[in-house]
Design goal:
By secondary structure, the chain is α+β, with helices and mostly antiparallel strands. It is built from one helix and nine strands, in the order αβββββββββ. The longest helix is centred in the N-terminal third of the chain and has 30 residues.
Length: about 140
């Protein structure tokens, strides 16, 4: 009789241990996931850490030297009053221009820039306080 009882307890204990091992095996794989994968081991991005977007529209895409161009657009994920700046691409690097603006109520912005050197300018608007992580697509302005 004690043999049968021991056998049943051993079976129950073995089944319990096997169940725990199988259940924890699924979570162990989640903890062993590659930490270089996007979002692994970090909180979901908030608007202040990477979900910001900026749109851009130039009122003119072709101007004569000395004329001004107005750039406008909308932002998402940036607070009202956040500083924005216009950048142009020079030798493969984004260089800030003197044109700056702030996000207005309604998440819109508008800024103007004057172009004096003939050529093609590739431009974008970037958030000044996010170290360039939030920026608009590029627009091209031809200066003649």
């Amino acid at each position: 009789m004690t043999w049968v009882l021991r056998h049943r307890c051993g079976r129950a204990l073995g089944a319990g241990l096997l169940s725990v091992a199988l259940l924890s095996g699924g979570t162990a794989g989640a903890f062993a996931a590659d930490s270089t994968a996007p979002g692994a081991g970090s909180a979901p991005p908030s608007p202040a850490t990477g979900m910001a977007t900026i749109t851009i529209h130039a009122d003119k895409t072709s101007v004569k030297a000395g004329q001004t161009v107005t750039f406008s657009g909308r932002t998402t994920g940036l607070k009202v009053g956040s500083p924005l700046l216009l950048q142009h691409q020079k030798s493969g690097k984004w260089v800030p221009m003197k044109a700056t603006s702030k996000v207005k109520n309604g998440s819109s912005y508008s800024l103007t820039a004057t172009f004096n050197t003939p050529g093609t300018e590739t431009l974008r608007v970037a958030s000044a306080n996010m170290a360039g992580r939030a920026h608009s697509p590029t627009v091209t302005v031809k200066v003649s």
